[in-house]
Design a protein that fits this description.
This protein is mainly α and about 180 residues long. The protein has seven helices and no strands. The protein has helices at about 1-20, 35-55, 60-85, 85-90, 95-125, 140-150, 160-180. Helix 2 packs antiparallel against helix 3 and helix 3 runs antiparallel to helix 5. The radius of gyration is 17 Å and the shape is flat.
């Protein structure tokens, strides 16, 4: 009963967070807080919550997986905000990309991807994963290539195709972990 109450409220909080991202006078997406909420809800709450629902336990290693997925999801939002940074600044939509500026937001993007990779590796080591699980790291190849492309990029419009690569890499990483768990 208590768990049902907790997860119901987490679901309500996620819905409220999704709406408050852009709606209302205090929309946090326009106050450089979107990255934090994406990290929390797509990473920590989503991954740890699902893990707990299925296993009825919390292994310390699951938080590393949550950090990896959270960083990858945040990288998608960050890249979208990098692409729109100039226009957002004109209309006073203060995303983290606007606040950090062109040079620092690229460094931040690299930190997100490297943090995701390191967290994924720690998760695999800490959980004593079978060797086959390491196949999921293949999903980081396009992410690392993306990181270098973003760093060299000078035209925000050219970041559009990179968005899909990050989103798909995040999905493929999660899918490969799921599929390899059956072997």
């Amino acid at each position: 009963m208590v768990l049902s109450f907790i997860f119901f409220n987490l679901g309500i909080a996620a819905i409220i967070a999704a709406v408050k991202y852009t709606v209302g006078a205090n929309a946090y997406g326009y106050k450089a807080m979107g990255d934090l909420f994406v990290f929390l809800f797509f990473g920590i709450v989503g991954v740890v919550g699902c893990y707990f629902l299925f296993s009825k336990s919390l292994g310390n290693h699951v938080f590393f997986l949550a950090i990896a997925i959270g960083c990858m999801s945040t990288a998608v939002l960050n890249l979208n905000n990098m692409r729109d940074r100039i226009q957002d600044a004109k209309v006073q939509k203060n995303t983290l990309a606007v606040v950090l500026g062109a040079k620092n937001v690229k460094k931040y993007h690299s930190v997100l991807i490297i943090s995701a990779l390191v967290s994924a590796l720690v998760y695999l080591f800490a959980s004593q994963a079978k060797p086959l699980y390491y196949c999921a790291l293949i999903a980081f190849i396009p992410l690392l290539i993306n990181m270098f492309k973003v760093f060299k990029n000078e035209d925000p419009a050219l970041l559009d195709p990179e968005l899909k690569k990050i989103a798909l890499s995040t999905f493929v990483f999660a899918l490969l972990l799921f599929v390899t768990s059956f072997f």
